[in-house]
Each structure stands twice: as C-alpha cells, then as structure tokens.
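Quick question, first post here. What does this chain look like in 3D?
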Amino acid sequence: MSVLRFPMPLSRDKQDTLLLLASTVLVLLPHTAHLPPWVTLVCGATLVWRAVLTMLGRRMPANLLLVPLAIAAMGGVLYTYHTVLGRDAGVAMLVLLVAFKMLEMHARRDLFVVVFLCFFLVLTNFFYSQSMGTAFLMIVSILALLTTQLSFQLTGAVPPLRTRLLMGAKILALAAPLAALGFVLFPRVEGPLWGLPDDAHSARAGLSDTMAPGQFSNLAQSDDPAFRVKFDGPLPAQPQLYWRGPVLGAYDGRTWTRLLPRPQFGRKAPPAVAIAVRGQPLHYEVTLEPTDTRWLFALEIPRALPQLASGAASVSPQLELQAASPVRERIRYELSSYVDFSLQAGDTLENAYQWLLLPYGRNPQALAAGERLRQDYPVPMRRVQAVLRQFATGGYSYTLQPPLLGGDAVDEFLYQTRAGFCEHYAGAFVFLMRAAGIPARVVTGYQGGELNPIDGYFTVRQSDAHAWSEVWLPRLGWVRIDPTAAVAPDRVQRNLAQALPAPEPFGFRALGRLMQPAPDSILAKVRYAIGAANNGWNQWVLNYTAQRQQALMETLQENLLGWRSLALLALAWMLLLIAGKFSRQRRVDPVDKLYSALCHRLGQLGLPRAPDEGPTAYAARVAGAALAPEPKAAAAEFLRRYSAWRYAPPPQSQPQGTGLLTTLKQLLSRVR
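> Answer (accepted):
Ran it through. Tokens below.
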C-alpha cells in the first residue's frame, strides 16, 4: 500500500519525503493565522517546489540559489518586525527555516533535523493559543510526526501507512500517562518557563481607560469571552449584572478619560468613601481572561478586595478594582457583592466641581439644553427623567453602525443623527447632566452575560461591553442611570442580540438564524456543550497554577500518609496483582492449554516432559517408550499437529480455528 495513489508505484524514498511534506504542512498550517501573508506564500511555494522535485525525481537546487533566497527571506523578517528576536520574528524565522531545509536535504540526517524542528514548531503554537482545539490539533501533528519518524527508521519491508499510524498512536498513548503525571507533579514556576519578549503579550480586544465614539460598537462585534462567573447560590437577575470597570470623568469634546487623582497636601490618606449596603451579598468566582491591563471586574458593590496570587488588589475612590500588575495570564478570584446600596449619599458632594467640568466652546446646543433643564425642572431627578424621556420618544435608534460625528459630537448625535451605541447615549447623557448642574460621570464595564446550563457558568463576552452613567443626587448619592435602556430596553433586560435587528448575511435571513440560534435549539445545545468543555479545559488545565498544585500536594499528604490510607493502598495493590495473575491465566491459548494437559497425562503414564524439551523431541521419546499402541499413536499425532501449529506458518487457505481444537481434544481423550 503506497502513501499516495499514483499510476506508477512510488519508491520508498519518495513516499517518505511526501509523508514528511504532509506532516510539515500540518504543523505549519496553524501559524498562517498570525504570520504575514508573504511568509505563508513563500513557505507554500517552497513546499510545492519540493513536492514537484520529489515526484519528478529531480536534484535539489544548488546552494548558489538557496543562499540568496534565505538571505532575502531573513531580510524580509527584519523589515517586517524591525528585529530578528522576539516571539513573532522568531517564529517567522523558524517557519522559513523549516521550509528552506526541505530543499536542502542530502542525507538521512537532514530528514531527522526537519522532524525535530517541526516538533519545536508544535510547541510555539501555544505561544499564541492554549485552547482545547489547539491542543487537539497539536496532538494530531505529533502523531503525524511520529509516523514520519518511524517510516525513516524502519528497515526492510515497510508496513502499510495504517500500521505505522497505529504504531505512532501506541507510542503517543504510552507517553500520555507519563506526561499527565509530570503535568500534575512537576514543580510549577510562576510566569512563563522562558522569559518572553515584549511582543509575547500582544494587544487584545477589551476595555481601555478611554471612551470614544465607535469604540464599544467595535467590541460588540467580538464574540471572545472576557471572563466567566460561577455564582455560589441564587443567580441574580439580568438587569443586576453590571460589571464595573473604569470610571471616566474628563471630556475633551471627543474622548472620555479617567480623572487624574488630585495630589493630597497635608493628608495621610484620601477620605473614605461612604457606602451603605442593604440585603445579602452575592458570592461568586470570576475567571478573567488575559487583558494586558490591570482592570478587574466585579458586580457593584464588592464587599472586600479580591485575593490575587500576583499581589494585592487595590480600589480607587470611584470603586474601580485594579490588580497590582497587568493581567497577562488567566486568573481567578472570589468576590462578594451587594447589588442594593447607596454610594456617597448626603447633602453635599466633596469635589463636586470635577464632575461638572465641560470643554469650553464645544456643543453649544447641548449646553443650552442643559441650562433649560435647570430652569424648567428645579428638582434634579426631574431633569434626569426629562432626558430619559427625550431618548425614549425622540426618534433615537440603537445601532452598531452609527454615522460619523464631527467636532461637536454631542450636538450632532442629539439633534441630527439620533443613532448610536451605548457610548453615544452614556456620553451625551453625562454631558447634558453636567450642563444642567448635576454631577455625572461615565462608567464602563460589561452588562449581562450568558448562562451555560451545562456547567452553570455565566460567560461575559466582549460583545457585552457596555457604558452607562452615574449621577449624584442629594440624599441619594451616586445613582446608576443607563440611558441605553431608554432606547433599547432589551439590551439590559435580555442581551445585545435581542436589542439589535436580526442579522441577514448576504441577504439571507436563514443564515442569521443559524448565527443566533434559539436557546433550546440543537445548535444552541451544541454551542453550550463546546463552551462547557472549553471552560473545563481552562479551569482544570490552564488554571493549574503553583498555588493549586501546592494545595493538591498538601491534600495528598494529609489523606494518603495515614495508616488507613496506606493499608487501603496496599490492599488495592494486592488486588491488582491478583487480578493481573488471573488475567494472564485467562489469556492462555486454548491449544497451549491442551498441550499442557497432554504433558500432564503422559507424566502420569511415566513419561514426564523435561523443562527444556520441545514437542518434536518429546514426540521422538514417546515413540520409543513402552506404551500401548493406541495411546502412543494418539500422543504422537497430537505432538505432530501441535508442533506444526506452533512453529510452522498456517496455510493461508485453511486457517487454524476450532477444527484444530476439536482434533486435539479427541486425540487427548485417547491417551490413557
């Protein structure tokens, strides 16, 4: 059986080379997602070139041609990345090296060099993704490489490709338990095994500490998970799922940014923030995806700071949670939050002026509208309600593709386009409130989440990124106001997909229904199952940190070193030995079992078999013994048939089966 079917049979060298090419393509294929297009094209052309040379039986190109090509490729890497070091440049160099090495194989040693380089390339895939799908694809790649390596090492007749694949799978299966044991028990180090360069932490989609028109609508098109939440107890309602992030208070007419902390003169610490909570807190655990920022997300309002292995978390006066260092690996933390609270409730607000500042000379229509609100509604809450009523009845729409805005973005949005996403409504609302004399600020974070009924986790995705407002009212304190809910109530009550029109890709509504399946449909159940599997992979494999390993070792030490545990282990070991013995007995061939019975019966007749005596020699001795003619003939025929079955290949046309067993049993019964 040849590796590939061609009109003419391929030589073994060609088969092995084509198998190596196929394995190399399987290893290089995942890297095309992050390599520059020109690197992918060069590698593809090089591998096709090598395949054509193999099929035609031509010689490898001369070094006078390969060396300039290699130098040009390395120059392209330097031009693209401005360096030859680092993760991205290093992987691009290694991929090109493997491709060019395929054109420079002159000895058997070169084949193994390519195989071992491909093994290292398998490892580099985990620099970009550590998902369960990536792990499965890498296992398939390792199986292909092992099969290729076995093909090179076999001498003489080469078994079919299916047999070599099974041999590679057996090697992989034998190595898997040892790898799993090493994963669990080998001491884990904090951070990456190697000191990764700066480009190892590439930018990721997520919230930043600024907000500008179009920012959140771009995030809403990403289905990547931001974090997952497991609640311990009753689940909160969807409108309560406000995950607080950066709080923005400075506006330059285009972009909202965080207020810089004011320097404290003559004070040892900033004044405490007055918080009054009501009801029972919600307990939950957050698994946060890497963001390369310090932001932590929690339901409003956390009871205490989360405990992080990387260092102590901190909280700002605006109740923003931050880690001690950028979150570059998946982390987990536990929190308890109150969803019913009062924040800085009182008659006055310290430093209220900083939440009233507006850029000079910008958005004159909105400034005038704010002044009219102040005159028409002396009670601040009435002004809030008036603006929300304007959003609900003024012909405003909620869309992911709002029109572009100019210099006076708030005026254009409020009085011309009237179409926007959450950042437009939150920013315009805060502007109007400040113009009306009410302290206000923008709060960014996430709203909502999708419950997976299989594992009970809430998945909060980047598409759940949201912006809302907070206004300060006398005796009520900071009050959350979500102006988006006035325009699109389904955004808060249910999710983003329900608030937007159903998609129609390429004009087909059926494709849109496939993209947004009903919660009880088969597609949704499959999606939940895949999500639960990925979450389990993240929780039990990728989140197996040094702290969790230490806790496991302590648990094992406490539970396995007592006399009861040792006695149970000893008993289990004895049972395994006994089971193995009986299993070996059960695996004895029935023909060999009959042969042992014959030897035992002849021993009873005075002809025991010597330990080093084979069936042929034993038959010769039985033939010269003083036995009755019938038992002697039956024993001789038994030993002849057994010797032929044991040492001679069975005829292809008449395979041995139950007929041999029946004959041997009859012969054995005549030996008396």
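Residues 161-185 form the longest helix (25 residues).
The radius of gyration is 37 Å.
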